[in-house]
Amino acid sequence: MRLTTKGRFAVTAMVDLAMRQNRGPVTLAAISDRQHISLSYLEQLFGKLRRAKLVSSVRGPGGGYNIAQAPQQITVAHIVRAVDEPLDATQCGGKENCHEERRCMTHDLWATLNEKMHEYLSSVTLADLVAHQSGKPVAVIKDFRPREEKEKVAA
Fold first, then answer.
1. Model pLDDT, residue 142
2. Were both Cys, which of 10, 68, 70, 74 would link to 83 (CB 3.0–4.6 Å)?
3. Number of domains in the chain
4. Parent domain of 107
5. CB neighbour class for 132 (10 Å; exposed up to 12, middle 13-18, buried from 19)
6. Measured between alpha carbons, how far is 140 from 145 in angstroms, rounded to an integer?
């Protein structure tokens, strides 16, 4: 099974976005800072998420991204698929040519795992992930500014 950082980061960014969407469009720079994901990488992922109609963009001052559908309708499988993340535990990509152009002895095992992964990821919604975060501390970037600077901003 191979779920790379592309799928993980896309899900993480979507949860971050969904948690903050009630305050208006969310910038990728803000998600990048909070989640420690490269801004250029987020730009690539959000281009794919926008093409899949999972997010919408708002241009101009105060712009950013919004969730394009109800979080209850967006599953983790939708997000992972949108960023072209392969969810395939078979060695052959489902073509049944895993062992010297023939089906390997464990092909059914891995194909069944694929089905179970897809079932599970299709059963978990963005709303579920946001609800799971309720009441839990959210990662915050440490403020490295000198104390005097922080006090000026607070005053």
1. 45
2. 10
3. 2
4. 88-123
5. exposed
6. 14
On whether both 102 and 58 belong to a single domain, the answer is: no
Predicted local confidence at residue 106, as pLDDT: 80
Structure tokens, 128: 């579920």
For residue 30, the model assigns a pLDDT of 96
If you write DSSP's letter for every residue of 54-106 in order, what string do you get? SEEEE-STT-EEEESS-TTT-BHHHHHHHTT-----SSSTTSS-TBTTB--TT
Same-domain pairing of 95 and 78:
no
How many CB atoms are located within 10 Å of the residue 1 CB?
A: 11
Asked whether 44 and 8 are in contact (CB, 8 A), the reply is no
Q: Over the stretch 4-38, which tens digit does the pLDDT of each residue have?
A: 789 999 999 999 999 998 889 999 999 999 999 99
Structural contact between residues 71 and 18, judged by C-beta atoms closer than 8 angstroms: yes
Q: Are 75 and 104 in a shared domain?
A: no
Same domain, 94 and 135: no
| Phi, psi values for residue 104, rounded to 5° | -80, 165
Neighbouring-strand partners of residue 65: 26, 57
Rounded Cα distance between 122 and 116, Å, is: 10
